[in-house]
Amino acid sequence: MSNDPFEGFKAKQREIWSFFAPLEGMTTVAAGHLVRFAALRPEQRVLDVGCGTGVVAISAARLGAKVVGSDLTPALLERAKAHSKLAQLDIEWKEADAEALPFPDASFDAVVSQFGHMFAPRAEVAIAEMLRVLKPGGTLAFSTWPPEHYVGRFFALTSRYAPAPPPGFSPPPQWGDVNIVKQRLGEAVEDIRFDRGVMLFPLLSLRHLNQIMEETVGPARALAQSGDAATLEKYRAEVRELASQYYVDNVLQQSYLVTRAIKR
Questions:
Q1: Is residue 134 helix, strand or coil?
Q2: By CB count within 10 A, which of 44, 120, 124, 184 is most buried?
Q3: One digit per residue, pLDDT tens: the chain, 264 residues?
Q4: Residue 2 confidence (pLDDT)
Q5: Rg (CA), the chain
Q6: Smallest Cα–Cα separation from 44: which of 143, 130, 137, 126?
Q7: Terminal Cα-to-Cα distance of the chain (whole angstroms)
Q8: Cα(84)–Cα(62) distance, rounded to whole angstroms?
Q9: Half-sphere CA count of 152, side-chain side, radius 13 A
Q10: CA distances from residue 226 to 166, 211, 221, 253 in whole angstroms, order as listed
Q11: Can you tell me the distance from the alpha carbon of 159 to that of 119, in angstroms, rounded to the nearest whole number?
Q12: pLDDT attached to residue 163
């Protein structure tokens, strides 16, 4: 039996994120933003960590980059493979843990992640791995959810209803705090730059939001399956109250942070 306290946690993550694919269309504009901000170029070897259904990997490959997409969840990788086949792009898809990337040191010219690596349970392990496989002088770029905006607050709210994670767990929205990002990257990088964007999520109602989140977003889906009806209704009401602050003209506004840095 493994002594890794995160093994069971990761197995649950692999399962609950299997249903994210219906939201992929919403993330494609942000994927273009990340690829442009990362200044990816043709012929570069690029790794997309936590690639999900492949929106960033495919966007980079369309530029002519040589792309590898890695993700913990096989169901999302199958969707990514179908997308790349449709786009007639040659992308390598690899089932992999962001905390143990199966690539040699200094393998890539750029390492990117869109709302992916931030869900690795130990931030220091994930970022060490991403930097390890990146060449000196290479580009590290990622999109994350700031803690003070809707999605960061949503995950904080959801975590109050979820079972406690193992000791040493890093809350995902911390990756959206520029000061924490600078601290985590430390002296390993130079020329850190930030940008911001807003992802628009059309919704018919805030109860529609409850339904979509519980069908597609891992932690919300896990709560919906908990079987505690009273707790679930309380949670749903809190989500609607939070979302009402960002819901204008049938659109939920989701602000995100983009980071770019160069490995020393």
A1: strand
A2: 120
A3: 456 789 999 998 999 899 999 999 999 999 999 999 999 999 999 999 999 999 999 999 999 999 999 999 999 999 999 999 999 999 999 999 999 999 999 999 999 999 999 999 999 999 999 999 999 999 999 999 999 999 999 999 999 998 889 999 999 999 999 999 999 999 999 999 999 999 999 999 999 999 999 999 989 998 898 878 999 999 999 999 999 999 999 999 999 999 999 999
A4: 53
A5: 18
A6: 137
A7: 39
A8: 10
A9: 18
A10: 19, 15, 9, 28
A11: 13
A12: 87
Residue 97: which residues within 8 A CB-CB, separation 6 or more?
10, 72, 120
| CB-CB contact of 82 with 54 (8 Å) | no
Pairing of strands 247-248, 134-144: unpaired
Q: Are strands 251-263 and 134-144 parallel, antiparallel or unpaired?
A: antiparallel
Q: How far is the C-alpha of 1 from the C-alpha of 121, rounded, in Å?
A: 20
Residue 99 burial (CB count, 10 A): 21
* Residue 139 CB-density burial (10 A; 0-12 exposed, 13-18 middle, 19+ buried): buried
Residue 142 near residue 194 (C-beta atoms within 8 A):
no
Q: What does the pLDDT read at residue 1?
A: 43
Q: What is the pTM of this model?
A: 0.95
Query: Which is nearest to 172 in space by CA: 202, 217, 216, 215?
Result: 217
Separation between Cα atoms, residue 238 and residue 247, nearest integer Å? 14
Q: Which residue has the tokens 């409850």?
A: 210
- Are the beta carbons of 139 and 65 closer than 8 angstroms? no
Quick one: how far is CA 73 from the chain centroid?
12
SS3 for 217-264, per residue? CHHHHHHHCCCCHHHHHHHHHHHHHHHHCCEECCEEEEEEEEEEEEEC
